[in-house]
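Subject: Interface between my chains keeps coming out wrong

I've been trying for a while to get a sensible model of this assembly. When I model each chain on its own everything looks fine, but I need the whole thing in one frame so I can look at the contacts. Pasting all components below, labels as-is. Any help appreciated, I'm running out of ideas.
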Amino acid sequence: MSESHSNLLQQYSSERESAQNTAELEALRVKYLGKKGEITEQLKGLGKLPPDERKAVGAEINRIKNEISESLEKAMREMALKEQETKLQAERPDHSLPGLFNRPGTLHPVDQVAREIADIFLAMGFFMAEGPEIEDEYYNFEALNVPSHHPAREMQDTFFLESGQVLRTQTSPVQIRTMETLQPPLKMIGLGKVFRRDSDITHSPMFHQMEGLVVGENISMSDLKGTLIMFVENMFGKRAYRFRPSYFPFTEPSAEMDIQCIFCEGKGCKVCKSTGWMEVLGCGMVNPRVFEAVKYDTEKYTGFAFGMGIERMAMLRYGINDIRLLFNSDIRFLRQF
Amino acid sequence: MKILLSWLKDYIDIKETPERIADALNMAGLEVEAIIQPGKHLKNVVVGKIISRDPHPDADKLSLCRVDVNRGEPLQIVCGASNMKAGDKVPVAMLGAKLPSGFEISKAKIRGVESSGMMCSKKELGISEEHGGLYILPEATPLGEDIVKALGMDEVIFEISITPNRGDALSHLGIARELSAIFNLPLHREPLGDDDGNGKVSDEIKVEIANETLCQRYGARVVKGVNVGPSPDWLKDRLEKVGIRSINNVVDVTNYIMMDIGHPMHAFDLNLISGKKIIVRPAHSDEKLKTLDDQVRTLDSSMLVIADAEHPIALAGVMGGAESSVSDKTTDILLEAASFQPVSIRKTAKRLAMMSESSYRFERGTNIDNIPIALNEAARLLKEIACGNPVKGIFDAYPKQEILKQIRVRTRRVNKLIGINLTPAQIETYLLRLKLEARREGEDLIVSVPPYRHDIELEADLIEEVARMYGYNNIPETLPAITSVLKLPTPLQKLENRVKQHMVSLGFNQIISYSFIPSNIDEAFREKKPLLLKNPLSEDQSAMRTSLKWGMYDALRRNILNDEFNLKFFEMGRVFHPATGEMSEEHSRICLGFSGSFNNFDWRRSAEPFDLFTVKGIIQNIGELFGFRFKFAQGVCSVLHPAMQMEVSCEKTVVGQFGQLHPNFLDNRKMPKNIFIAELDLGLLAKKTVAINRMVPIPELPAIRRDLALMVPATANHRDISKIIADEAKTLLEGHYLFDIYQGKGIAEGCRSMAYSLTFRDPQKTLTDEQIQPIIDKIVNRLDKDLGVKLR
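Reply #2:
Try treating it as a single job with all components included. I did that and got this:
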């Protein structure tokens, strides 16, 4: 390459490197490649050269032209990106300002826990049934094998209406109503409000229960255990459990299920009264007298039932120490869940 | 019920620890609520005798005592109490002793004098809360003995909660029987008293049962020459530890037998029984009886009484009469042990509100075979501790011998119900441990149920006994091999769940208020006559809610009093209406409560206080989301501001209303005016059919938009304007909406400027302004003609 051409390239290179923005790069393009640019001028001057040199010099100038052109294009692209970036960066607001936030509402803790429990059973193939909260004594007691003047009625102090009806003391009447309309095999849960004449920091005259019932051929107590263990593991995680014999008029055999205390992991604490165990639900094999009340064949069908208090679960889960907080509608409480 | 370990040992040689026994009872279904061991935390405290008491050389209020603890040299103890003297016996905590409070005794110098131990008060021993100086022990307390033993504090007391079916377990015998089955230990007992004595019982008393259904058996025994007085210490001690107050030796014996074998008894003063006759009969109506608690009771014919030849002397199974009761002057005793029908006892006890230990046991069923045993044991004890002279024999009125129940248990059924695989022999062994004797019949067992197991009536009851003995925790775990019938959520359940989620997304907090309301609630809140509770807990909770508005109003008000003004609440639940006949109706509703502003006001947005239209918008929003075509009209709810409320209907059914709280209910100064309440009946809405939309092709041709600014007189409203626009534009109008309302400068008094935006489109061809203008003209003309609305 001739010395003048190599000087030209060198001059271009240093000018391009010192270019600060796209406008300066554009000026360079005009200076070298424009109509009156240095390269253009040189191409114009080719005609003045002797014919034998013309071809070689022409090729060299064209090569230089291409080189500059490509280099400028590339520089132009990069510079444009850089300039855009600078411009965008300048738009940066105070990121630490709070978002324009609309605080979402909250589901009541009892509702949340009830849903969680229901979801486990629904996933296990149970369906959800409902029944009235004001019940006939028949559905709340007699059909469930609790005759009048039976001491078992004391287990549930009942509200009576002037009409003689009762506020249901348990969700178990839902079982009766379901069995009156459906034939086995069935797996149902019932959820709702129940009422008992009792009021202190762990008892509310109104609370919620979840009830379950499974009826079919060959349903056994081992099925009861397996089902409830599956529930407990999904609700509280894998932990020790035990079944204790108990008494409910509508089941025989009857049991209460305890799990290892979720607060002290079985070491013994205030919540579990130092026993290491927490009672979570009552259950049992459906008493044949209940099947008789709904005209199911007691020889063909067997079944199990269970029930649990939702408030108790919610209180355990959220560490709520007074059941009345749940029904006081205090926003400072509700907002926490 | 309190059960003493030492008393259980009368029946069973049990060596297990208290904890192990409690666990076993729990796992057998007898819930041990607590194990009380009063002496458990008391070690190294002994009985000491004060030899001398001198003043402390250096402190006025302290004494310097020398105390003999029967362990060589007397101890020198500095003491701050002042109620002791030389010769007194006191509890002494020796060096190294630990007291229930956690305090540990060590050698100390008190005001320069060495003290090697501590004399204790009742409080320091953890026996009582009283701190009345040192506990001065009875003179006879053995010197040097461990205080736990000396005070009988080595007892283990189980607090057991018995389910209502297990009347048979309400005694030491009953619990021992269970333990014998659980640990497979023999049940034994010192020989009980016999019916021997002088004379002949039938010369002393005759018993007649007038109603054999209400009283199946009545046994009477006579003991003469009794010295009524205090019971011996062992008897007092046992009764006090199970929580029964000692009265006198006669009454104490009857109570003792009740706690021992579970049979309630009663003792009469034989000489106060008129005509030497006991008649068990229903009371005559309005008959009176003064019971032991000195109350005069008016009886009726549903109550069973024990009467003498003249009048009632006891309320059968519930409480004795005051006049025939045992007193200091009594010498001859008539002992009663009987069997009464549980339901009758329960009804009587309930009606007179007088539950007793006795009625409690009769309600749950007693052991009819225990009647002679109870009587003979009582006679023996009275002879032993009250110098009584039993008369020979029992007058045993037992008209219809009870026949033992026989129940068939099928091996196959046992295994099917429990999910295990036992042989008939194994089942027999388990039952036998519970004293349930069985006869084999092939694979079946025919079980004779002892008369005290009132809970065993069906095969399933015996299967539970087998399961208990097998151990619930040994039963395998399986999953039911059935597929349930399918029952999908009802439309109401689905609607409730979706609306709940929606409200939470909109920022509402769910509340659950009581389903009760005060029966004297303000008329305005009574949507219907509320159903009243017969036995409410309080006046505030004496009726059932007829709408959710009261609970919502109360929730808003109480939060506002706590200075929480921005509230968005919703509640979902049922309300209760009286219905035809005796029945009631339940309706599922949602109630919304609003106070303050809808959005959060923050660094960029200002507060947008709730008004009728934000609330209306939320209701419309619910309608839109769930496809309900809501219509709004003037509402008439008396809880709400008469002009600031609307009624919501859907397909011609009124489904609810919303509006501003009536100013009459702004009952304190903190409450802002703009409190709104809305209530919708979800049950009614769930019945509405929601149409499924068919797809409409997305328009390809452009639309034309025209804005109309109208001058609207006070007589015209948006609904009428809107209707005229829609009517006149017909099918070419794609939509229209109100985008501005202005009142004030430039607008005539009472008028409003309302601006509408109209969008026209023809799906077939591109519209031109020329096509639209005639339509606009027609609209404008109609608005002017019909409503006096003019173009601005």
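Reply #3:
Confirming on my end. Chain B has a mean pLDDT of 92.
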